[in-house]
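Exercise 7. Given the encoded structure of a 574-residue chain, write a plausible sequence.
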């Protein structure tokens, strides 16, 4: 698979693929992977490079005119990153996006889950809700996505208990209030503790019909004279180079902000942008508002952590670990007009944690060598018990922790005024920057409070240690609610059958523009509460299947080595 650099191509170079994929992140690479060795020529167009380059990230700048808004006396909860990724907490809202092959997986921690059944339903208390598919119909694609992500079985509720090697105790929580929820973590095939990096998928994508073009930013989608098909894509590179792509089919895989921005900024034929005849592109912007719900006193940490930790199961000879948390029940959501949300445990390990000290010593880290040796030498029993839990019971390691809290990510009620539009400011290519007006509504706030109070109630009823609610929830001070974005922008090109409230149809094709498809979280019909990667890859698998059938019907010619060589010569200027 050739990886080409637009900077080295002659100005005015033209590419003529059958499918142009805009974006070399996990979504674009997954679709390319599914189309590998098929009858169609595929060009993956990536704005960044084969490696992560800080300079390219300046193109992610936005004009933020919405949440999260700094409020006097209200401390931001941050995004929750710790350790070597703590710097990600400081990146401005909606700018935590990675340009480069592998996209967001350069900086993610691998956390995955699928949406719940209720997320797909048309909910009467949420006027813009409902997916044009069921959770059951998407299940095969989600299973394929889980396999690609090196995940275990796609189970995230109480059904998982009977599969776990040593499950947590069945607590007597009221199922009409709370339900168990689990997350699992994607990892590299040969490095279980390292999150999966899709740059490796790009490197392994060797097929005669796949090309990758880096340092190539799409600045404009050009429609044909009818306005109902894509004619070409305009490309620019940082050194002033330009090129044109003449594709049969286009798939936008540039993320929840950039997909909407590119459609809106393509105004050469359509004044409001491509696919925006009903002024829907960019609307319904959602994320996963994150906050802290409650904390436990330090002496109570171990008593709580034994129920809410990592639990393993053996799948195809490998142990897969799932993190146990709790979500607001569908019953409460329906009765009280709330949205879906889930709480997960977060432990902050103490500086003298024996396992952390042992890991540093095993890595050859000498920064705290004397202290780490002392901590390990004084903790043989603690380490032995932890090893037993991990290797025999297949549970999370024991840690000495300074803090245990429960954080939440909440679904958003769709709001047409929460949106991405175009700024008066432009980037280096003269393309208007995105203006982001993210709104967090009262439904999200009330759902989070309901979940927090249900947790306190059920912990007390089950004789577990009592947590302390954060102040704004304890005192009903909604104006002091503290949320941040989780870099999960979604729904800006939402999927649906009605063009009045959606941008793409159930096959992910832009309404009224034949052959222009959109993939990624921007097509979510509703955002759910779960981390989006598994869902977006499941939808990408589904779209790839549709594209293959569509292209076969159009009798795309077979790719030959000679055809590949001829285009390589054109691209190199030979």
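Solution.
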């Amino acid at each position: 698979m050739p990886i080409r650099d637009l900077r080295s191509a002659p100005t005015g170079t033209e590419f003529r693929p059958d499918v142009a994929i805009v974006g070399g992140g996990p979504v674009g690479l997954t679709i390319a992977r599914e189309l590998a060795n098929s009858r169609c020529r595929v060009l993956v167009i990536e704005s960044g490079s084969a490696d992560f380059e800080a300079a390219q990230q300046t193109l992610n700048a936005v004009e933020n005119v919405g949440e999260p808004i700094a409020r006097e006396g209200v401390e931001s909860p941050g995004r929750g990153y710790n350790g070597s990724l703590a710097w990600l907490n400081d990146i401005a809202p909606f700018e935590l996006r990675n340009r480069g092959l592998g996209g967001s997986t350069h900086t993610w921690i691998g956390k995955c889950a699928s949406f719940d059944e209720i997320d797909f339903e048309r909910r009467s208390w949420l006027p813009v809700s409902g997916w044009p598919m069921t959770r059951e119909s998407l299940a095969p694609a989600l299973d394929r996505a889980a396999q690609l992500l090196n995940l275990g079985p796609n189970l995230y509720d109480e059904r998982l208990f009977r599969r776990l090697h040593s499950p947590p105790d069945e607590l007597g929580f009221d199922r009409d209030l709370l339900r168990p929820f689990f997350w699992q973590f994607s990892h590299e095939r040969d490095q279980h503790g390292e999150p999966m990096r899709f740059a490796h998928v790009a490197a392994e994508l060797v097929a005669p019909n796949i090309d990758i073009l880096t340092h190539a930013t799409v600045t404009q989608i050009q429609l044909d004279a009818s306005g109902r098909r894509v004619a070409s894509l305009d490309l620019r590179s940082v050194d002033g180079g330009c090129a044109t792509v003449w594709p049969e089919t286009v798939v936008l895989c540039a993320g929840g902000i950039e997909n909407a921005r590119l459609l809106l900024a393509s105004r050469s034929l359509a004044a409001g942008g491509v696919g925006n005849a009903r002024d829907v592109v960019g609307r319904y912007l959602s994320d996963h508002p994150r906050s802290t719900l409650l904390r436990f006193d330090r002496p109570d940490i171990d008593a709580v952590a034994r129920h809410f930790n990592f639990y393993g199961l053996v799948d195809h000879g490998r142990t897969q670990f799932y993190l146990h948390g709790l979500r607001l029940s569908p019953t409460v959501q329906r009765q009280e007009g709330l949205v879906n949300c889930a709480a997960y445990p977060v432990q902050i390990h103490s500086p003298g944690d024996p396992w952390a000290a042992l890991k540093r010593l095993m890595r050859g880290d000498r920064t705290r060598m004397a202290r780490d040796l002392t901590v390990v030498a004084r903790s043989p029993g603690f380490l032995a018990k932890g090893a037993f839990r991990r290797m025999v019971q297949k549970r999370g390691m024991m840690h000495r922790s300074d803090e245990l809290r429960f954080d939440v990510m909440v679904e958003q009620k769709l709001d047409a005024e929460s949106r991405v539009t175009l700024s008066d400011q432009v980037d280096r290519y003269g393309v208007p920057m995105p203006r982001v007006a993210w709104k967090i509504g009262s439904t999200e706030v009330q759902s989070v409070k309901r979940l927090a109070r249900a947790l306190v109630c059920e912990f007390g009823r089950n004789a577990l240690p009592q947590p302390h609610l954060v102040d704004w929830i304890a005192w009903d001070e909604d104006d002091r609610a503290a949320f941040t974005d989780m870099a999960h922008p979604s729904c800006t090109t939402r999927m649906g059958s009605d063009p009045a409230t959606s941008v793409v149809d159930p096959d992910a094709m832009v309404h009224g523009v034949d052959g222009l498809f959109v993939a990624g979280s921007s097509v979510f019909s509703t955002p759910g509460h779960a981390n989006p990667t598994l869902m977006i890859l499941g939808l990408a698998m589904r779209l790839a299947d549709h594209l293959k059938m569509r292209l076969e019907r159009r009798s795309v010619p077979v790719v030959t080595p000679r055809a590949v060589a001829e285009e390589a010569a054109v691209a190199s200027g030979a």
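Remark. The CA atoms of residues 57 and 523 lie 23 Å apart. Students should compare their own answers with the one above.
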